[in-house]
Amino acid sequence: MKLLVVEDEALLRHHLFSRLTESGHVVEAVADAEEALYQAEQFNHDLAVIDLGLPGMSGLDLIRQLRGQGKSFPILILTARGNWQDKVEGLAAGADDYVVKPFQFEELEARLNALLRRSSGFTQSTIAAGPLVLDLNRKQASLDEQPVALTAYEYRILEYLMRHHQQVVAKDRLMEQLYPDDDERDPNVIEVLVGRLRRKLEGNNGFKPIDTVRGLGYLFTERCR
Asked: At 81, which CATH number?
């Protein structure tokens, strides 16, 4: 699943990014409402986690804007304010659930999973690009209706590139997705994984969806739907 995390506190934002990535999600973590609105406009998301106490535009106003733009993905709010008025105001703005800081990650994860289960009938279950189809629920890929045997890391790279199709994705961003808590990992690992992925996807039909942009990263050239 693709999650959008909006949290201005850097340590908590990194912690949520790391733990949710380790749980198998594709995570975009941003610090303010303006960047969140950009991400929501450019990409599809399955769920958002939004802190109410954001700088500039508040979390409440962000939620109102997202709902006003027709974004229907579930929203879970984070708040350090535990009084009932804030919870009611957040839910009235369009949020679906809330967690009060400080919280245990296990509680947050349980609430996220419950929201995802309840909304599963309304969220995207596949991503397709030409003959390539990703099944987001089963974490499987098929090419020309034939299964493609991918390792867990190959799948995560492919899903991330397809979700960010026609955008250059830096190696560092892919490293963060695969190894969020390992700053010492050799970036050449990404080159090896992308090389293996290409060999599995490129066939005789001329389908070559992953380009290298020298000095910048990788580009999934096909438009996804």
From this structure: 3.40.50.2300
